[in-house]
Amino acid sequence: MMQTTAWPDVDFPLGAHIVTPRRWYTHHGIYVGAGQVVHYQGLSTSLRRGRIAKVSLAEFAGGRSVHVRDEAQAVFADFEVVARACSRLGEGAYDVLRNNCEHFCSWCAVGVARSSQVERLLSNPRALTFAARLLTALINGWTSTRDALPLLN
Fold this sequence. Notes:
Number of helices: 5
CATH superfamily of the largest domain: endopeptidase domain like (from Nostoc punctiforme)
Order of helices and strands: EEEEEHEHHHH
Shape: globular
Mean pLDDT: 79
Low-confidence stretches: 1-6, 141-146, 148-153
Distance between the termini: 27 Å
Domain LRAT: 17-117
Helix content: 25-40%
Protein name: Lecithin retinol acyltransferase family protein
Keywords: Acyltransferase, Hydrolase, Lipid metabolism, Transferase
CATH topology of the largest domain: endopeptidase fold (from Nostoc punctiforme)
GO molecular function, one term: acyltransferase activity
Pfam families: LRAT
Largest sheet: 6 strands, antiparallel
Oligomer: single chain
Structural class: alpha+beta
CATH class of the largest domain: Alpha Beta
Strand content: 15-25%
């Protein structure tokens, strides 16, 4: 369950697993207090692997809404989630299928790296084909993705 929060007016709970929508996925981070988020930058700025970084909430959100993701299975207290997130600052082992921002946040709160987005993608052949074609289009010079779009219909 996700709870919508008007983030400019609200201070998220320490250690909260927060998410913000992107065009084809949801981006995840851990709120570490004082308006700061630790997240895996992934492929957000280029096709080069990003690192785990601490950024402002505004930078994390990128002008989009931010929600708190309920971590019902969390095994760590809020301060432990923050400590786990900060312990990996600078890590650069991003892998979209095995070590992405959602895997990172799950590991921080639950102790197990999981990504429901990846699990859904891998269980849906049409979505997997779409993702492969889209990634190919991006790698080939950020060409038009129009050819991949009919797969969604």
